[in-house]
Design brief:
single chain, alpha/beta, Spore Coat Polysaccharide Biosynthesis Protein SpsA, Chain A, seven-stranded mixed sheet, 9 helices, globular
Amino acid sequence: MTEFRGLVSVVIPALNEQFGIEKTISSIPKATIQDKLGYDVEVIVIDGDSADSTKDVARKMGARVIVEKQKGYGRAYKTGFAAAKGDIIVTMDADNTYPAEYIPEYIRQLNEKDLDFITINRFPGMTNGAMSLTRKFGNKILAFVMRILYSVNLRDSQSGMWLMKKSFISTIHLNADDMSMSEEIKIIAFKFFKSAELNGKYSVRTGTAKLDVIEHGWRNLNYLFLYKKLLKFAIKSSTTNKEKVYLETPNKNI
């Protein structure tokens, strides 16, 4: 019998994702996480006041649904992190693009390597057509700027699948309410905590895309420069700040 170790919270922001949310939630390997790793699982959907049936579908799938009427990807995650009860928090998009089946392996590495934060590199196993050439090029630019400005070397600076310890998210202060938070949380994690980028995959989304590549890309680029002035406020208390640790991003696929 597997020893009980705690709770995993899967936090999923959603806005009008009635076609993807069911597949996303059903793809989470709850039985494996419970039976093999000893963690109970809660699923929290942070709904941006969807006009379709996203909320109803999520509740039908057993998720706890929290409606966040303030718009923004980062805002949704702040609400989700505050509500999450888990010792480990996992994030995913609601469009069935991220490899939920890898969650048990990622949790194992988080524990065995005593990591605070993991981000997933989508590119090694990306399905054809899952990301446009414009998005791929934009990601490379943003990753390059992040490396130059912050000495954070990531292959996929915009990935939205992360695993983190509750102690990590409780220690930091997140500023951005929009998609720039994806960069912000990684900068904090890799500058001040023990973190790693692990290979994964990325599938064609279910449902209609909402990302405006040019607009969001430009905002994220601007934020990388703006955040230089805000980074000093990232840690809530200097007494809880850990020794800076930099890990090489592993090349091996899971």
